[in-house]
Amino acid sequence: MIRLAFLSDLHFGEGTLKAEQALVEDLLAADPAAVLVGGDLTRRARAREFAAAQRFLARLERPVLVVPGNHDIPRGDLWARFTSPRAAWAEAGLPVADGELVIGNWAILGLDTVRRMQKHLDWSAGGVSRAQLASLPARVAMIGERRRLVLCHHPLRHPMGLTGRERPRRADVALELLARLGVEAVLSGHLHIAARIAGKPEQVLAPTALSPRTKGSPMGWLKLTLDDGPLNIEAHEATEEGWRVRPL
Predict the structure, then answer these.
(1) What is the DSSP letter of 169?
(2) Other beta carbons within 10 Å of 245
(3) Are 12 and 53 within 8 A, CB to CB?
(4) d(CA 72, CA 62)
(5) By the 8 A CB rule, do 45 and 89 touch?
(6) Which residues neighbour 139 within 8 Å (Cβ) at sequence distance 6 or greater?
(7) In a 3-state reduction of DSSP, which class is residue 173?
(8) Which among 210, 187, 207, 208 has a CA at the least distance from the CA of 197?
(9) What pTM, to 2 d.p., does this model score?
(10) What is the pLDDT along the chain (248 residues), one digit of tens a residue?
(11) How many C-beta atoms surround the C-beta of residue 25 within 10 A?
(12) Alpha-carbon span 116 to 109, nearest angstrom
């Protein structure tokens, strides 16, 4: 049995030190084997926000797989957004390439879905490139017969009834390919809600970990228990009385 912590949308630059300390304490009390971070480490992709995120991750003293979110590239500075969108991310020592975490009989594949621009007005929507799609079969082959999850910032499947948010480019193509490759679930953030959306692969959404901009789900994180059975998930939700844990 393997326990993993999955958190997303830390948004350093807008949260509080009190909330950060409570999150660290609850994560360490759960004693996960590793931590998955689904992007939006920062609010404005500033160097000091990345530095705060790095300090937070170092406090956890666990292996970490992290992917960027749309807030992790410049928004107002269009020159930087188009010429060096991940400069601050790289300077902070965070990985820019799609990576993997292998633990026991499981493998989690990182997928960078952040894009500099879109053909529509929602530039935050992200996408999966043709090059990423082409590389996925070889990446899966490298991990052998292990069970597979994918970690990315943008949900490839949205909850029913969600309006006003675009899905990532090539989301349907990516879902079809991931299903063929035996990926069991896609872990994402972006929407600031905790949810499980049925399908092949299943879509798992983490709430915001630290941002006060909640969207119907309290701040918190998800605990994944991996064993020989189906994926087991518990939501750890921050309340005024402390942490509330419920099945997701």
Answers:
(1) B
(2) 13
(3) yes
(4) 22
(5) yes
(6) 98, 100, 109
(7) helix
(8) 187
(9) 0.95
(10) 899 999 999 999 998 999 999 999 999 999 999 999 999 999 999 999 999 999 999 999 999 999 999 998 888 777 777 787 788 888 888 877 789 999 999 999 999 999 867 777 677 789 999 999 999 999 999 999 999 999 999 999 999 888 778 899 999 999 999 999 999 999 999 999 999 999 999 999 999 999 998 888 899 999 999 999 999 999 999 998 999 999 99
(11) 11
(12) 22
Instruction: Please give the radius of gyration of the chain, using alpha carbons only, rounded to the nearest integer.
Output: 17
- Type of residue found at 59: R
Please spell the DSSP secondary structure of 181-199, one letter per residue: TTEEEEEE-SS---EEE-S
Residue type, 199: G
**Residues 189, 67: contact at Cβ < 8 Å?**
no
List, in sequence order, every beta strand (DSSP E) within the chain: 2-7, 34-37, 64-66, 100-103, 106-110, 147-151, 183-188, 195-197, 202-205, 220-226, 232-239, 242-247
Nearest-5° angle of CA 246, CA 5, CA 104? 115
Cα first-last separation, the chain: 18
- Residue 241: closest CA among 221, 218, 222, 213: 218
Print the SS3 string covering 29-69. HHCCCEEEECCCCECCCCHHHHHHHHHHHHHHCCCEEECCC
